[in-house]
Amino acid sequence: MSQNIAETDLFADHRITAMGLFTEAFTGVSAKLANQIVGHKLVMAEFEVLLRLSRSPGGRLRMSDLAAQTSLTTSGITRLIDRLERGGLVERTACPSDRRGLFAQITDLGRARLTDVLPEHLGLIDTWLIDLLEPAELEGFLGALRKIRDAVRPGAAAGTAEPVEDHHAK
């Protein structure tokens, strides 16, 4: 059975290549990072929440904003915060301006856990991402990722101002 030319063109489409490369790079780097996180008795979702809280003003975010920033549903974020709270890594606090609202706030123990994880984690990010790109490539890459993220996840920065980062300092 022979392939027709239209099928061949469709399968060779540059959009499929772009998505495939993006997926392969993301899953490859994620696997390297996840292995390291598991060594610290955390799963990636727990680490992500602790990191987001630690980088937010006052070390806290509204539960709804935290759900919007992650790939978790509101019930999923509630279960995750329950688990982190049982471990003493976060606590819930009431929102003073909205009686129905709750904040998740990182505790000192949660910050200490991140302090243990981050040096090796940052080393892996350097090895598998930062050091592979020239400074101009990295700047363009980060800009492109923000543009894509903002389009597909408009609530991803909810409740926080994104920090200005020096990508060249180590």
Automatic annotation (TrEMBL):
Occurrences of domain HTH marR-type (ranges): 7-150
Organism phylogeny: Bacteria, Bacillati, Actinomycetota, Actinomycetes, Micromonosporales
UniProt-listed PANTHER family: MARR FAMILY REGULATORY PROTEIN, TRANSCRIPTIONAL REGULATOR, MARR FAMILY
PROSITE patterns: HTH_MARR_2
Pfam families, alphabetized: MarR_2
GO BP terms, alphabetized: response to stress
Species in which this protein is naturally found: Virgisporangium aliadipatigenens
Transmembrane segments: none
Protein name: HTH marR-type domain-containing protein
GO molecular function annotations of the record: DNA-binding transcription factor activity
